Amino acid sequence: NPLIAQTSNRNFRPDPSWRETLVHRKDPLNAYLLVYPSIRDSRNERLMGIAWEGIERLAKLSGDIFENETSMVEYWSAYVQFLYHAMSLTSSPIPSEFRSISVCLNYILRNISYSVVYTNQPNSTQLFLQNLAGFTRTNLQLLQSSSEVDQTHYEESLESLLEAWVLILGSLDDGCLSQALTEVKESIKGIFEGYVQVRVFIAEKELEYDDQENLPPDVQYYDEQLQKVAHLGRLDAAVSVNLMSSALTRTTSNFRECVAKGGDTKRILEEFHWLIIISGHLLCDVPRGEQPIVPDLINEISKHHFPDPVVRLVNCVWQIAQLENMCLNERKVEQFWSPLLASTIVWFMNMFCPTYLWQNSPRISPSLLSAYGKDSPQALQLLEFLVSKAVTNLRMWVGEIEVGEESCNLLLSISRLNVDYATILRINSWSKLIQSHLESNSLLDDLAPSVLRIYMRSLTSMRVGSTIEEKANYFKKITEPLENRLS
User: Rounded to whole angstroms, what are the CA distances from 4 to 12, 35, 384, 478?
Assistant: First the structure.
């Protein structure tokens, strides 16, 4: 009880008087090591839950109870030895046990930095990485073969495992630990690819459920998980980017073949959806109120590979957007496309736009500047393509609020680029949008309130005029149709 009272959500900070028991002799840890196989064999979920509650508490051990880094690392080694033992028993998996092991891995890495362990005991870390990688791959495999009930445990377990990998990478940011980073890179091979396969597999399986409409949007629900996976994927960026390009190219070919035969494209659309989401996170960091930049490891492969694999992957997504346009123009949307995928494509464009388009920083690779930079002729053509796609969506996907919101967010991102108004007006689609806005065939009557708000923000965020008077005239002209509509 005295120990339990000193345990918080993240930390277990007992008085140093417990040092001999907890750190030197490791009595509780050794006791769990001794009795856990019997507890597990009992298959008593309540008893296992109590056991893992105690084991988790020991993973949170921190503070003055450790005399120095040496005692901290020795405790870490003893603790992960227990976890290795628990992992060795999972050949007959218990879903809740997977989750518990993963949570404990997460806590021990939070409280005792991997870089500290590597610096003091480098010979022990390679085995740890091998076990962690093997456990992660097993978790991914079980996600594909588990029941809907067990899948929740494996999803939670995967979340903790990915967090554990990110904690390791975060502790190795120091350039002096480049050898450790190389070891991590070797250990995680196949995990990114395995994750891609699992997400597509589960998405296709979920098509069988009747309550698809009640599932949360994937982009939001899996946002943090996708950021962690992208972090791992970028460690071997060239392999990961080429993997996504090949997958999108293959799926595009399958789609064309399916349409030619008049087949059901639902599974292919789900595959497109997930491949595009993962590609977006791989190439771009999620903006957090700052100007996003091209991730360093993505920028590096763009500099040192020809043809540029980053440009190739982006082009793969543009080809899918053109497929959607084809379906819209030929009135085949209901038969072969979906509003979910339409929303995903513009989401990708909205991630891409502030990160890559109209940049002129010397740190960005020459290839990316040539394709998307401020002085590139292709950049203006791409702006035309993006604005046209957003406007087409607003006109053709009437009533689909998520598509409308993402499309207007794209217009908002474009309006916030460092592009002068004269250049924007050279974009034919934007000029037509402004003209349409000022005339009777405006989009205003067709947009839902949440979409309309973003739409108006995009029009009023333009860099217009060089004087206050010019700006005031523009804002008056832009807001007048809305005032007339409300009156």
Answer: 8, 20, 62, 63
Which residues lie across from 12 on neighbouring strands? 7, 61
Q: CA-CA distances (angstroms) from residue 191 to 186, 225, 230, 455, 468?
A: 11, 13, 11, 40, 55
Q: CA 417, 344, 300, 228 torsion: positive or negative? A: positive
- Cα 57 to its chain centre, rounded Å, is 30
Name the residue among 91, 108, 124, 119 with its Cα closest to residue 161.
Answer: 108
Burial 18-34 (b: 16+ CB within 10 A, else e): bbeebbeebebbeebbe
State the Cα–Cα distance between residues 307 and 293, nearest whole angstrom: 22
Rounded to 5 degrees, φ, ψ at 337 are: -125, 180
CA dist., res. 403 & res. 340, Å (int): 8
Q: What is the largest CA-CA distance in the chain?
A: 82
Enclosing H/E stretch for 286? none
Q: Which two tokens stand for residue 205?
A: 């399986």
- CB-based contact 73:121 (threshold 8 Å): yes
Question: What are the pLDDT digits (tens) for 403-424?
Answer: 999 999 999 999 988 888 778 8
Q: Is the peptide bond before 14 cis (omega within 30 degrees of 0)?
A: no
Q: How confident is the model at residue 439 (pLDDT cuts 50, 70, 90)?
A: confident
pLDDT of residue 1: 44
Contact yes or no for 129/184 (Cβ under 8 A)? yes
pLDDT, one tens digit per residue, over 459-487 is 888 877 667 887 888 888 888 887 877 76
Q: Find the angle CA(275)-CA(379)-CA(242) to the nearest 5 degrees.
A: 30
Do residues 345 and 317 make contact, with C-beta atoms less than 8 angstroms apart? yes
How much is the CA Rg of the chain, to the nearest whole Å?
27
Q: How are the residues of the chain apportioned to helix, strand and coil, as percentages rounded to the nearest 5? A: 75, 0, 25
> Would you call 487 helix, strand, or coil by DSSP?
coil
Q: Detail the DSSP E strand segments found in 354-436.
A: none
Cβ atoms 50, 93 nearer than 8 A: no
C-alpha–C-alpha distance, residues 132 and 188, integer Å = 9
Interatomic CA distance for residues 194 and 255, integer angstroms = 23
Task: With a cut of 90, say whether residue 164 has pLDDT above it.
Answer: yes
Give the tokens for residue 355: 């990160």
Give dist(CA 317, CA 311) in Å, integer: 10
| Residue closest to 283 by CA, chosen among 159, 179, 156, 371 | 371
- Identify the helix (H) or strand (E) that includes residue 368: helix 366-372
- 181 closest CA partner among 142, 101, 125: 125
Distances (CA, A) of 1 to 21, 94, 120, 462: 15, 29, 34, 63
